[in-house]
Amino acid sequence: MTGSRYEMPDKKSEICVIGGGPAGLEAAIAAKELGAQVLIIDDNPILGGQLIKQTHKFFGSKAHYCGVRGVDIGTVLNEKAAALGVEVVNNATVVGYYDNDTLGILRDDTFSAVRAERYIFATGASENMLAFDNADLPGVYGAGAVQTMMNVYGVVPGRRALVVGSGNIGLIVPYQLLQAGVEVAAIVEIMNKVGGYYVHAAKIKRAGVPIYLKHTVTEVQGKESVEAAVISQVGDDYTCLMGTEKTIECDMILIAIGLSPLCDLLHQAGCRIDYIPELGGHVPYHDKNMRTSRSNIFVCGDLACIEEASTAMLEGRIAGARAYESLHGRKSRAAEIARQAQKELDIIRTSPFEERIVYGKKKFFPGQVPEAKS
Amino acid sequence: MYDYITRHPILEFKRGKKVKFHFEDTELEGYENQPIAAALHAAGIKVLSFSDKYNRPRGFFCAVGKCSSCLMEVNGRPNVMVCMEPLRAGMRVKRQKGRGKSR
Ligand SMILES: Cc1cc2nc3c(=O)[nH]c(=O)nc-3n(C[C@H](O)[C@H](O)[C@H](O)COP(=O)(O)OP(=O)(O)OC[C@H]3O[C@@H](n4cnc5c(N)ncnc54)[C@H](O)[C@@H]3O)c2cc1C
Predict the structure, then answer these.
(1) What is the ipTM of this complex?
(2) For the whole model, what pTM was predicted?
């Protein structure tokens, strides 16, 4: 085969949701419940986004699936969407947003188009990379990538890991590696304290994995793939302190230093994109109805700001309800869904862990932001 | 010689039919429909391609079809994202050099 076939069987829908993670699924469910015609497009064989690899139990409130494993939340949402009759196109990647408000889709080497009156983008985020010597060697992986290999496909791409970053992902994935029988040499964290929740850090420490604070990885060694890593302590200005280097034997490095919203399609669609580090970098502007600067496009979840599954779901409900309203006019049930979700979001966002997000979201509306805060 | 997680405290893995495929000049086994990258890593193969300019070995990075670090040549077609592409019986998988060529 030399190339893709180009076909335009123009699929039409009232509301098209791009990305079937927790945010997209909830958006689709809310809009469908209200009576809209809804289509979800996702590039995986199974919907659920990041949830399909999360074997740990969530915490928070009961209403937000506390105590339930991520994988099982994904199943619940999938069943809900299916029962309501949400149309799903899986294994399909949205590759472009064109002038006439049409999406280009690639599925099994066939190109097609979808046209909808409203789009809800819920494409999530991609893992950030870190630069150090030999960072391109095989064996340097995104932490979420290893989690996918391990928990979805049952394959661990190494036997001894070094983890870079101690946010929740950097704490949870190594714990899951241990469960799968893989050694974890250490976690390094450049800040002077662990980034993620205390419970996750405690579990890791109990398992005997050292967490090196104020440390970073400076070099990876190996011929064809990772054989060892050099870590080094950093000073108050975050530069490496000479003479503090340690060589750690390992065959994989898991990078868990954060995620960046996948907003390239929105760029192409001409949506206003702002740079707000608190939200994860370049993020699409959106108002409290999750509407972007283009009136036919809504956003939710990690794409709108790097946060967590429960808030992604709530933002999804708001986006779904408001997209519906923008098409069919005000309806008390839609307003109720959005109001309820907003109320729950506000409660979650009172947590000290969420301060940064609340501050970041205000930055979309200059005038509301108090001056400088680091 | 294939390294799969067999016992896990939480998960149970459902795998497809066992199939044979080719990697470079060797015949390997994998499970139908698993991503090609999963089959290769279970067989201990981490180097998936070589970079364009300096010929440096490359492996996967994101495993969810976003980063293009895992492009290989599959059945003569270059630039196939093997972290997503499902394995089929008889596939011919090769390490891609640089940007790859259509054959
Ligand atoms: C290791 C780890 C642990 C976590 N633990 C927790 C936790 O304990 N509690 C919690 O609340 N949250 C947790 N999170 C965070 C949570 O998983 C995310 O915030 C949440 O999944 C975001 O949902 P989303 O729907 O916005 O994006 P995603 O779940 O990323 O879903 C986006 C979907 O869109 C698809 N997509 C993207 N681009 C395209 C395209 N162009 N075409 C088609 N499809 C596309 C993607 O493949 C994916 O399926 C954790 C995350 C990780 C990685």
Answers:
(1) 0.96
(2) 0.93
